[in-house]
Design goal:
With 43 residues, the protein is mainly alpha-helical. It is 93% helix and 0% strand. The chain contains one helix and no strands. The longest helix is centred in the middle third of the chain and has 40 residues. The chain is rod-shaped and about 60 Å long.
């Protein structure tokens, strides 16, 4: 039973970590895209 809880907890933590990583990458990509657009399109 405890093994199941450990597995469920690990799975939950993995989901949160993946979500954070995905959001960070998405924000970084948006920042870079914004920078490129401002630099080359509005110049």
């Amino acid at each position: 039973m405890s093994c199941f809880f450990v597995f469920a907890y690990f799975n939950w933590m993995q989901d949160i970590i993946l979500d954070c990583v995905f959001q960070s990458v998405f924000c970084l990509f948006g920042f870079v895209f914004d920078f490129i657009v401002e630099r080359y399109v509005f110049d």
